[in-house]
Design brief:
79 residues; 53% helix; single chain; 3 helices; mainly alpha
């Protein structure tokens, strides 16, 4: 409320959860950003549970690191 310039206003995308951001990615004008709808669905199924465990300070499960690394590799290839 006390912002005097546009630079003092935070980016609205920073306010969204990962789930909300993923919903935006699937809609125009983003249209998947190079991944198919099936790939984004798999990303949600694989990565959201890992993100939730981390953000709520729960113990990671075996394989969580590999899941994150796998998706990082996939996303880097598409960039």
């Amino acid at each position: 409320m006390g912002a005097r310039t546009i630079n003092e206003i935070r980016n609205p995308l920073e306010w969204l959860s990962l789930g909300e951001l993923l919903e935006l990615v699937e809609r125009p004008p983003c249209d998947g950003l190079g991944l198919t709808a099936v790939e984004w669905r798999r990303f949600k199924q694989d990565v959201l549970p890992v993100r939730n465990r981390l953000s709520h300070m729960r113990l990671l499960k075996r394989g969580d690191k590999e899941v994150a690394q796998q998706w990082l590799t996939i996303l880097r290839r598409r960039a």
